[in-house]
Amino acid sequence: MTARSCAGMVSTMTDQIQNSASKEAGAKDNVDVEAIRRQIDADFEQTVRQLKDLVSIPGIAWEAFDPEQLQLSAEAVARLIRESGVEDVQILRVDNDGVPGGPAVVARRPARAGMPTVLLYAHHDVQPPGDADLWGSEPFTATERGDRLFGRGAADDKAGIMAHISALRSLDGLLGPDLGVGITLFIEGEEEAGSPTFRKFLQTHQELLRADVIVVADSSNWKVGVPALTTSLRGLVDGTIEVQVLEHAVHSGMFGGPVLDAPTLLSRLIATLHDESGAVAIEGLVRNDDASVDYPEADYRADASVLDGVTLAGKGSLASRLWSQPALSIIGMDVPSVAKSSNTLLPSARAKFSLRLAPGQDPTEAMHAVETHVQKHAPFGASVTFTPGETGSPFATDTSAAAGQRALWALQQAWGVDAVETGVGGSIPFIADLTEIYPEAQILITGVEDPDSRAHSANESLHLGEFKKAVLAEALMLAKINSEGL
């Protein structure tokens, strides 16, 4: 999930820029930026070669795919971590109602006394390849074309794994025993399947994974040439709304007129979920218009493939509509298809909604607000059944805290421009589990993708130049924490 801006439109508050400048001035005495840059450069060919090897393993955590490939993927990651110099490496699973979860790789290098610990998260499982005919090369054969590396998982998220390994390997080579910060690598094996055992895994291995800072390398940069730190995520609630008007279907010619069919009434109910501008009309939801990024409408239209003539919905800045306001979509309906339709009044119809929540919104309160709304707006006295579904909490981080400042400084050093503090309209549900189980940890969401990476789609790719900068940024951030702490 990504967003682009036009050249030069980066988001930083004035005090943040001044703070970053002062941090940078003091950093030169503590972190040898150029030495780390040279080490990353020297190691990069090996990093890319190892990334290509990982891409060749089709580890997919879906029931329809070979679980042995997922195990091979975990073993390959564990081997790379051991080769980087970390000796304490385990492949762990937890069961979910008797069904084993995906294999996760956990590796630890304990902190020296008085030093903080940083947990580095990524995931080694990938999305299915989809239609092979849509790919320009074999999905599981990493292929370089121009400045990009194509292949399933090349960006999402095997590049995240290699960013962690390469950054740690380079720092270890430079600092040796002076690298006293604790490092825990947590490489999940079921993220693309919805992380079904993630929370149980955290609870089972809570002390093993405990850290002062958690770096989640599974997001995106603003665009090629401009890095980003993801500072907010919308939450999520979903569920189904069913409308019933008849005990059974009846002939539309004989009985139509006095009573409206269920699909029509469901459509009328769905129409009440948004106001005339297209903004979500459900009372009691949190909404903010505080995004500091200028996201040009032309860029959004191009990114989202909006057809000419379609008016954009909602109120407030475009960035806030994407990141800090609620957004509701109907993502499925149970009604007969046109091909199978008949001249009958349908007795019932059902729709599934997906509601993205603004940071600061309690998911339970949001679910109650949706239920209250649909019951209040039941059309023509129809029977409405509301069935709640999944929930996920939103997320926001404080970049004025030490870890955020270290990350922003490192991104600026690696790219040579200030980082965008960006929101993401989508959700990463397991972030809520991390914040609940480790409330004292500072969570940073970074990434290696860019708007052209096409994660989850055909021709997924990684910009190799941006990837090198992402590796450098992580190494610099770890070096900064190592030298100055938190």
The structure class reads: alpha+beta
How many helical elements? 13
Q: Over all CA atoms, what is the radius of gyration?
A: 24 Å
The largest sheet is: 6 strands, mixed
Instruction: Round the mean pLDDT to the nearest integer and report it.
Output: 92
CATH topology of the largest domain: Aminopeptidase
Give me the CATH architecture of the largest domain, please: 3-Layer(aba) Sandwich
* Number of separate structural domains: 2
Report the strand count. 20
Strand neighbour order, sheet with most strands: 1-4-8-5-9-19
Task: Note poorly predicted spans.
Answer: 1-28
Span between N and C termini? 30 Å
Percent range for helical residues? 25-40%
Indicate the CATH class of the largest domain. Alpha Beta
Q: Percent of residues in beta strands?
A: 15-25%
Shape: elongated
CATH homologous superfamily of the largest domain, by name?
Zn peptidases
Please give a structural write-up.
A hairpin with a 2-residue loop joins β2 and β3. The strands form six sheets. This protein has a six-stranded mixed sheet. Strands 13-15-11-16 form a four-stranded antiparallel sheet. Strands 6-7-20 form a three-stranded antiparallel sheet. It has 486 residues and is of the alpha+beta class. Residues 1-28 have low confidence and may be disordered. The protein has 13 helices and 20 strands. It has two domains: 14-233 and 394-484, 3-Layer(aba) Sandwich (Aminopeptidase), CATH 3.40.630.10; 235-287 and 326-392, Alpha-Beta Plaits (2-Layer Sandwich).
